[in-house]
Amino acid sequence: LSLKFGDIGNLKGLVIRLLLTTSYYQLSVQNWFSLHRLQLLYNHSVQATFNATGIHAPATYSFHCEHVSSLQRYDALLVPSSANDLSQLWEVTFIDFQIQGFNVQEGHFAYARDCASFFSPAILMGLVMSLILLLVLAYALHMLIHLKSLDRHYECKASPAYFAQMKDSDMGDEKEPLRNSGNESYELRNQQFGKIYI
């Protein structure tokens, strides 16, 4: 696949050539296409060659990536093919890159397989937070399992209430006659009727 810039000023002689291949994989039971190499040609002369890594998708899909670049800050999906050629002098970055080499229908891209890796920063943060929550939950369950019952250590050992029976003779000693208004009344000398043992 060759991209030509036509008559755009200094880019008139620049061509970007993408080498795509398709292969059948038995594990997925379908054809996949891959971008193997990217070449920069200027005035029909190869200026730089980059090997592509990780740019592949099922043949019925397209491939999409926010950045396809030779720079490390964009994960460097394009790697110079050799340290001796001029690839080291070039910096290539495609923004909002989407490609489909085969099975193109009506000039539109098929469903895109995105290049976002499984362990993106957002997914890693989610995994770390999930791990922390699981540890807190495990610690809480551990504490609940080893919680000791208070009933075994603080059983009520009190005996039933006991009221001492008072004899009539005792009551006689306890009573002191009151003389007022002609009625016979008694006042207890000792105000304690009984004792409660707990």
From TrEMBL:
GO terms for biological process: regulation of cellular pH. GO terms for cellular component: bounding membrane of organelle; cytoplasmic vesicle membrane; endomembrane system; proton-transporting V-type ATPase complex. Its main location: membrane. It is found in: Membrane. Residues 117-154 form the V-type proton ATPase subunit S1/VOA1 transmembrane domain. It is a single-pass membrane protein. Keywords: Membrane, Transmembrane, Transmembrane helix. Residues 1-102 form the V-type proton ATPase subunit S1 luminal domain. The chain crosses the membrane at residues 118-141. Pfam families: Ac45-VOA1_TM, VAS1_LD. GO terms for molecular function: ATPase activator activity. It comes from the Eukaryota. Belongs to the vacuolar ATPase subunit S1 family. This is VAS1L protein. It comes from Illadopsis cleaveri (blackcap illadopsis). The lineage of its organism: Eukaryota, Metazoa, Chordata, Craniata, Vertebrata. The gene is Atp6ap1l.
